[in-house]
Write a structure and sequence with these properties.
The chain is an alpha/beta fold and about 375 residues long. The chain has 2 domains: about 5-240, Type I PLP-dependent aspartate aminotransferase-like (Major domain) (Aspartate Aminotransferase, domain 2), CATH 3.40.640.10; about 245-365, Aspartate Aminotransferase, domain 1, CATH 3.90.1150. About 40% of the residues lie in helices and about 15% in strands. It has helices spanning about 10-30, 35-50, 60-70, 85-95, 115-120, 140-150, 200-210, 230-240, 245-265, 290-300, 320-325, 330-340, 350-365; strands spanning about 50-55, 75-80, 100, 125-130, 150-155, 165, 170, 175-180, 195-200, 215, 220, 270, 280, 285-290, 340. The protein has a 7-stranded mixed sheet, with helices on both faces. Strand 6 and strand 7 form a beta hairpin. Helix 2 (about 35-50) runs parallel beside helix 8 (about 230-240), helix 9 (about 245-265) packs parallel to helix 13 (about 350-365) and helix 10 (about 290-300) packs across helix 13 (about 350-365). The protein is globular. The structure holds pyridoxal-5'-phosphate (PLP). The site of pyridoxal-5'-phosphate has 15 residues, from helix 3 and helix 4.
């Protein structure tokens, strides 16, 4: 059995360090927003090269709080991709703004920047790019475009911790970068967790207020906030993994390149685009397959995990049918019909990679 993701191998390696950390948190009896959270924020900020990082309860909250802290709200349009997880668009709704979906590039699966520019209106307040599957958006180009039109950029970095363009980390380009530490993400907690990175001290301060019931000073509340505090146990676990994140991402890239070497040239299979400009961190390894369902069936009968991320683009989701159902985004719709994600995690062994690629070759050749 080769699963899509296997978190047990990583834990085996970290066990003694995490058990020790767990005892220390229990002994300290400080469970929420304590020294581990503060240290995590400092360590992540340093790693990303952003002056500020504010931890919160999930990636969804990170997106929501980032939009709220930037003052995005009712009447505002936020341009985003339909080829993403629902949370990207939910966050836009939470602040009362309107998502505007534009189509993606068929090589990178990320927002098509020409279409982003064409979709800007006088109501556009922000662009919300997603660095999908760990592939960084061309951020220098998007920032030039956004600056030209006076709109903000909020990056959805849920899948891109450690991805970079020109040596600069995703999350460090826009007005804010929102990260998820959901267990299966490249940097994953053992529960829900998230974080917002920003270079703006006022935005950072607003985020700290919003995540803790709108209070600067305890029991004095100036705005309606939220309970989106991170706990010490998750922060301790994330700090242990932070020390190894470059190694984890390097291993993911090794797996991806082994897949690429064995799947390039297989008829009907298109391997992920990697141009060397951006550093792709392969949260997912997603191929396009002309006969996707046959390959998925062959993998499953060989006891190999695979998944379709994402089968339905957001503008075709039932929840958005009334508001966006008329929109046609042919590239997203085509990619959704052909995309297939293969098992990937840092510990995936060469033998297992070989078994996956041989099963695919066999399915293609009948
Ligand atoms: C995982 C994910 C989120 C949400 O993160 P949670 O921590 O699960 O709330 C948002 N956007 C994208 C693209 C994601 O993959």
């Amino acid at each position: 059995m080769i699963p899509m993701v296997d978190l047990k191998a990583q834990y085996a390696d970290l066990r003694s360090e995490i058990e020790q950390g767990f005892r220390e948190v229990l002994d300290s009896a400080q469970f929420i927003l304590g020294p581990n959270v503060q240290a995590l924020e400092e360590e992540v900020a340093r790693y990303l090269g952003t002056p500020h990082a504010v931890a919160c309860n999930s990636g969804t909250d990170a997106l929501h709080l980032a939009l709220a802290a930037l003052g995005i709200g009712p009447g505002d349009e936020v341009i985003t991709t339909p080829f993403t997880f629902i949370a990207t668009a939910e966050a836009i709704h939470y602040v009362g703004a309107t998502p505007v979906f534009v189509d993606i590039d068929d090589a990178t699966f990320n927002l098509d920047l020409e279409q982003v520019e064409a979709a800007i209106t006088e109501r556009t307040r922000a662009v919300l790019p997603v660095h999908l599957f760990g592939q960084p958006v061309d951020m220098p180009e998007l920032m030039r475009l956004a600056d030209r039109h006076g709109v903000l950029v909020v990056e959805d970095c849920a899948q891109s911790f450690g991805a970079a363009v020109g040596g600069r980390m995703t999350g460090a380009f826009g007005a804010a970068g929102a990260f998820s530490f959901f267990p299966s993400k490249n940097l994953g907690a053992y529960g829900d967790a998230g974080l917002v990175a920003t270079s703006d001290p006022k935005v950072a301060e607003e985020l700290r207020v919003l995540r803790n019931h709108g209070s600067r000073e305890r029991y004095h509340h100036h705005v309606i906030g939220y309970n989106s505090r991170l706990d010490e146990v998750q922060a301790m676990i994330l700090r242990a993994k932070m020390r190894r994140i470059d190694q984890y991402n390097a291993c993911r890239r090794r797996v991806a390149h082994a897949y690429r070497d064995r799947l390039s040239g297989v008829p009907g299979i298109t391997v992920p685009h990697e141009d060397g400009v951006g550093r792709h961190v392969y949260h997912q390894y997603t191929v396009l397959a002309s006969d996707r369902d046959a390959i998925a069936a062959a993998l499953r009968s060989a006891d190999i995990g695979c998944a379709v991320y994402y089968p339905v683009p957001l503008h075709k989701q039932p929840v958005f049918r009334d508001t966006h159902g008329h929109v046609q985004l042919p590239i997203s719709e085509k990619i959704a019909r052909h995309c297939l994600s293969l098992p990937i995690y840092p510990e995936l062994a060469d033998q297992q990679i070989l078994r996956v690629t041989e099963t695919i070759r066999h399915a293609v050749n009948g």
